[in-house]
Amino acid sequence: MASSINNRKPSEIFKAQALLYKNMYAFLDSMSLKWSVEMNIPTIIYNHGKPITHSNLVSILQIPSTKVDNVQRLMRLLAHNGFFEIVTNQELENEEEAYALTVASELLVKGTELCLAPMVECVLDPKFNASFHNFKKWIYEEDLNLFATSLGCDLWEFLNKNPQYNRLFNDAMASDSKMINLALKDCKLVFEGLESIVDVGGGNGTTGKIICEIFPNLKCIVFDRPKVVENLCGNKNLTYVGGDMFISVPKADAVLLKVCFFKLKYSTSVILFLVQRLFKDEIIINNVDINFEGFLFLFFCVNPAFDRDVNKV
Ligand SMILES: C[S@@+](CC[C@H](N)C(=O)[O-])C[C@H]1O[C@@H](n2cnc3c(N)ncnc32)[C@H](O)[C@@H]1O
Is residue 5 part of a domain? Predict the structure, then answer.
């Protein structure tokens, strides 16, 4: 049988192999990131107050001597991927390499205001990402959603039944929501004239609380699955309501719907459909921000005080 690449130049074939292997081993990028969070390396470097030498790091981590070189390899891979900067420690005689934080690893330092470590822990948890091995099954079985391929039920049902994963997921969403603090102050216009807002699928209210702090006169309702909000207490301008958004959503002047989806061709129209179904044509979408490094990121704030012109989005 003739080879399908008979007429290709060897250099072309090797380039293709390199591309293939790069993609095949791309999971090592995620796994090394997960490892660094599990080992608390960003937090250790942060607490160290200056770049940490390799020998110092392995000593703090109590790495068995047989694995010291492997740690160095992982640190170099992470540095190559932008998570650490390798600096040479000139003070030491042998100019041993040392690792410094970058902006990306600063976001993984635990106990700080903006920490996305819970997001890494959740997304790279084997239980949650096992579904991504099942694209084929998912595509062929019409009524099967992706998470059901490995969890046996949809994600929300699984979270309802498993408090430990519910916590992992909600902490991850809360950590992601804190990032919104950076943007909200510049988006005050979107909230002008509102007396109330409902954050649909608002999780444990992290975004809601930030909104209430910045806009103390705005009443915010955090609406999510009953299991998510059941033990949460609001305050004078924040209330939690449990329910199913596909059935009904508490009334408010505006709707906030902040969702992360995998890049799906139809995500935008699915969301628009959902919003339109819930609020008939009484809504205007003011602020849609799309495209976030391979993810589709949607941030809607629906404010009836604005023009009814979707093209202004
Ligand atoms: C991807 S998370 C987003 C959480 C939060 N808005 C954020 O951006 O961090 C989606 C949220 O929708 C909630 N959710 C899913 N199905 C729901 C339903 N049928 N009714 C109400 N909330 C739901 C989940 O519990 C979860 O908190």
Answer: no
